[in-house]
Amino acid sequence: MTVAFAPVLALAAIPAAGPVVPPQVAAAARLVAADGARPPSLRRPLRGLRRERFARGWVWIVDSGRMDDPSLCGTGGCVVQLWMPRPGGGVVRRFAGRVVAYRIVGQGSPRPVLRTECHGSRCGGSGDMPCVVRHRWRPDPDRPPGAFGKGIVTAS
Question: Looking at the predicted structure, is the pLDDT value of residue 27 above 80?
Answer without folding.
Answer: yes
